Amino acid sequence: MSSQTDYSKLIIGDPVKCIVRVKAPVNFQREDIKVMGTKDRNTVSITDANNRVLEEFDVQEAYGPEFNINQIFDNSVKRYLYPLVQGFSVSIFSFGSSGSGKSQTIEGNRKEAGLINLCADSLFTILEDKKHHTNQARTGNMQNYNFAVRCRFVEIIDEEVYDLFGRPGKNLQDTCHVVESIWEGPTIQNATWINVNNRAQVAEILASGVKSRNQSSNEFGRLASKATGMFTIELLQTSELDTMEQLVLISRMNFFDLPGSDILLDDPENIRIRQGSSLNKSIISLGGLMKDLSGKRNDYVLYETSVLTHLLKDALGGNSLTLGIFNIQNGDTRSSSLTLNFLKYARNIFNWPVVNDAKEIGLLKKYRAEVNSVKNNKLGNSMIGVDQSLMQNQLQLGKGQMYNDRGEVVELEKKLIENHLDKMRQADDKQRLANKLAELREKFNQIVREKGDLQGELIKVEEEKLEVSKALVELQIENTRLMEILQNDKYDNNNKLLNAENDLLAVNIREEKALKQIQELQDRLKDVVEDKRELEIEFVALKKNYISLNQTVEEEKLKNQNIGMELINMVNENKALHDEMNDIYKKSGNTSDENQKFINRIEKLDRENQEQREALVFAKAEIERLKTEMLKYDIQEQQHRLEMDQKKIDMEKGYIELTKEKQTEFNSLNQRQQQESKKIKDDKLYWESQKMELTHKNKLAQRKIAELEERIVEVQRNNDEITAESNKLLLQMDEMRSVYRQKLIQFTTELNRRDGAEKPTRIGYDMSAREELIRTYTEKEIELNEKLEQTKRQKSHISTELKALKNYARQLKYLAEDWAPIGVPLPEILIKSAPVNIDDAFTQNGGGGDQEEIDRLRRKNRKLEEDLKIMQDQLQNNVKSSSVDIQSRLMNEIQTLKGEPDILRRPGSSTANAEQLRRERNDLQEENRRLINMLKDNKKWDIYLLQRDNERLLKTVKEIENGGPVGPTSGGGDHQLRQKISYYEKTIKQMEKERSELMVRATMAEEQLNSMQEHLSKTTLDYQKKIVELKKSNARTGQPY
Fold first, then answer.
1. Which family is annotated (predicted)?
2. Residue 145 falls within a domain, yes or no?
3. Burial 500-516 (b: 16+ CB within 10 A, else e)
4. Are both 966 and 833 inside the same structural domain?
């Protein structure tokens, strides 16, 4: 037990070596990753926008943006080539998010070589040196040393393995797939191996394999970011010992370009639901595998969850020396943090590398065979299932029973054979399905190509659709403009029908707006012309640069010896073009989403141009290197030099063709960018015009609402004033009618009572006087009604003119608001609300005049009161004389009745008086009938009612004179006489009281009528004065009324 514990402490595997590489920032990215530390210990910090440290990670080696791939190779990768030559397997994988520089690190680009080319270059140098020293010196026990190198390049996409070195006409049965080999472990079946003899052949086949990688896209993005590239260099070394024993070493160096790790930021279940279970299976399984291996060093881990993890069985926790390169970039803190966290997992993984000589390979083959046998046994046991359980049950019955049931055993063996036949049939079906799958894949590739063609056609159709949409938008703009003109014309015609002056004002306003719009359009036209001139200047500059590039290319064809300098000049000129393009893009700005898409496409072309320049530099370096080799081996390898010259010429031709294609594509994209910019500007102008139109309509609607609200308030106020004034006038008219009726009745009654004996002879005179009074009253009423109607018409005319003035003032205010400069506060006269009445605006000026008018009216009122008192005294004297006669007659009658109560009982008493009263009554009745008929003929019903009231009063007087039943009739004798006398006295008092009240009311009515007439005349004069003043002010300013 103690020895086992000692072994567990002593036998420690080799941990995975991890380094960090920071990609240089592009497009003015903020540097949020900082690398600090010493040679043995480095710290990588992730900061926020305020340079505050969010996370820190301790790493063994870290390379900032200032380190290139050559320096990384010399410091960290080159050391693994010596163990490779000694027989150890080596694995190098590049881990990081999309765009962090994984592929550039492994495969390189046209600017600098990647780790594959650098390793191949140094490997052949080491092998040549080893062969030279071993065969020349023959030191030690080794002799006849030889080596052979071959390469393989595959790509894993959607759990499918694609051979990048495969020939185009490869059979579908030779599809690559991962198998578990007892000699090699996890390997790729049907993959193409290419033998190489020098580093140039490695670079050539690597370039062809990179071109064969999948560059297509689907609905989830570019497939290159979800693909894994695996490049393998296999080294076979043989030598002979002095014991005639042959020494064999087989080692491999695997390079893994892993998928983008940014997909691991999302939930795996959501990724499987959205994008399927197999598209991102490799990177998800790799993340789980690294976590399991870092935490479970002694437990079994399942590698067969995906094709990638199966192939990484030796690289992670197996027979290999492993180097992990973790790539991070600025501007993506989440992905950088995820990558550095997986670095922590990776450096806790331990490998167990051994020298892969013949003995070790044979031992590993034995162990793998045993493991496969155990797996097959388990699989067979699971497939036999119930049949084996039955056999075991039968075997347990005993030997005797087993011999007796030998026939059943034979039947069971037949079943086993049938099961094996089923397996074979299933294998055939599987092969047939694989063939069908290959056919479907070929069809799928064809459909993808057709899809690309259809997308091209769709783009053309979309461009045509955009042109049609543009024409339609222009037609809609023109239609909108015509409709606006039509609505304005219709509005102008309606205003002309209502008010000619308002039409003239609307025409002036519309002309001013049109001039303003014309001025704005002219300004915009100037801006467009200036932009066009700038674009023409830029186009001329680009054209000159293009001509200079063509001249440079022609000079390069003539001067092959100075091709290096000319390539540098072309790179510099291309860089200048790139800077000019960046300036153009910066000027254009992010105006819309379509412009942003176009900028993304330009950035893509920019990256392609960058890669092209890098390829130029790389070609230059390659040419220089080839020149050096040609000078070195000029005499011994003349044929090889000719071939290289031919290859160089081919490369130059390809470069020239590529340059022409890129230039053509650049011109087309530039033209398309100009069209897109023009379209964006047109769209911007259209939407700005729409915005201005909607703003104008909204302002007009708000103004219309404000005008309607003011009109509603004004109409309500006018209705209230008219209603109050009408009620007041009706009340005054009623009071005046009643006063005149009472006066007429009183005057008629007094005349009737003044001279009882002479009444029959003066009926005609009294009637003519009565008719004269009635006529005078009617004429007065008609005259007042006419004055009232004239006043109403004048008031209506004044209110109409006032509305016109308010409308004109409101239009002037709106025009001033529209012409007011933006950002400057409006004057106070435009902010405050308009006065409700004109009187409100002239309150301060007209205050003194109103007070004088009030004093004048008060003096006139006092004078009228004095005249009225004089008239009342005269009327009272006339009435008093007649009333004294009546009273004296009544008192005499009363005294007579009191002194001789029996006289009333004697028949024939007071016969003359009674007859006289009857005659007077009859005359009055006939006169009343005549007057009634006259009134009915003349349709003067008010006078008729007045006569009815007069008749009622006369009837009351006659009843009093005749001693009729005006009071209670229930008693007799003295009591009845007393009641009559008291009733007469009350009646006289009541009549006196009503007379005085009527006089007072008549006086008040006259005063109110006079004051109303004065107020109307004053208001009319004020309005006329103000209208004249406004006309004069408008005439002075030159504005139309």
1. Belongs to the TRAFAC class myosin-kinesin ATPase superfamily. Kinesin family.
2. yes
3. eebbebbeeeeeeeeee
4. yes
Both 630 and 737 in one domain: the answer is: no
The confidence band for 384, taking pLDDT boundaries of 50, 70 and 90, is very low
Query: 335 to each of 268, 442, 593, how far by Cα in Å?
Result: 16, 36, 26
The whole-angstrom separation of Cα 664 and Cα 671 is 11
Q: What is the DSSP letter of 101?
A: S
Consult the annotation and say whether 97 binds a ligand.
Answer: yes
Pairing mode, if any, of strands 221-222 and 177-181?
A: unpaired
Is residue 883 predicted with pLDDT exceeding 60?
no
Cα 302 to chain centroid distance, Å, stands at 50
Q: Are 226 and 157 in contact (CB under 8 A)?
A: yes
Distances in whole angstroms, Cα of residue 305 to Cα of each of 279, 310, 380:
13, 7, 22
Going by the DSSP 8-state scheme, the letter that residue 348 receives in this structure is T
Distance of alpha carbon 63 from alpha carbon 484, whole angstroms = 68
Rounded-to-integer distance, Cα 105 and Cα 96, Å: 11
> Do residues 739 and 871 share a domain?
yes
The total number of structural domains that make up the chain: 4
As a whole number of angstroms, the distance between CA 818 and CA 828 comes to 16
- Kindly state the average pLDDT of the residues 811-819: 72
* Helices and strands per DSSP (H, E), number in the chain: 25, 18
216 marked among binding-site residues: no
Domain of 269, in residue numbers: 2-215+223-376
Other Cβ atoms within 10 Å of 321 Cβ, number: 21
pLDDT reported for residue 673: 80
Q: Identify whether residues 185 and 319 lie together within a single domain.
A: yes
From the list 131, 109, 133, 105, the residue with the least C-alpha distance to 119 is 105
* CA distances for 748 relative to 740, 744, 768, 885, angstroms: 12, 6, 12, 16
Question: What is the DSSP-derived secondary structure letter of residue 223?
Answer: G
Distance of alpha carbon 93 from the chain centroid = 44
Same domain, 390 and 461: yes
CATH number at residue 33: 3.40.850.10
134 and 239 in contact (C-beta within 8 Å)?
A: yes
**Residue 320 is labelled as binding a ligand:** no
In a domain, residue 908? The reply is: yes
Q: Give the residue-averaged pLDDT of 453-478.
A: 81
208 is in an annotated binding site: no
Within a domain: 77? yes
Checking if the pLDDT of 967 tops 50, the result is no
**194 shares a domain with 142:** yes
Q: Is 96 annotated as a binding residue?
A: yes
Please say which residue of 338, 354, 376 terminates a domain.
Answer: 376
The confidence band for 906, taking pLDDT boundaries of 50, 70 and 90, is: very low
Across 4-18, 438-452, 551-565, which has the greatest mean pLDDT?
Answer: 438-452
Closest to 1016 in 3D by CA, of 737, 734, 777, 725: 725
Going by the DSSP 8-state scheme, the letter that residue 827 receives in this structure is P
Q: What is the DSSP string of 857-926?
A: HHHHHHHHHHHHHHHHHHHHHHHHHHHHHHHHHHHHHHHHHHH-TTGGGSTTTTHHHHHHHHHHHHHHHH
> Is 98 annotated as belonging to a binding site?
yes
Domain boundary among 471, 487, 518: 471
Confirm whether 1009 is domain-assigned. yes
Alpha-carbon gap, residue 213 to 162, rounded angstroms:
9
Domain check: are 656 and 509 in the same one?
A: yes
Predicted structure pTM score: 0.42
Task: Provide the phi-psi class of 398: left if phi over 0, else alpha when psi is between -120 and 50, else beta.
Answer: left
- Residues 711, 835, single domain; the answer is no
DSSP state of 562: T
pLDDT tier at 377 (50, 70, 90 boundaries)? Answer: low
Burial pattern 465-485, b for ≥16 Cβ within 10 A else e, equals eeeeeeeeeeeeeeeeeeeee
pLDDT-based confidence at residue 626 (cuts at 50, 70, 90): confident
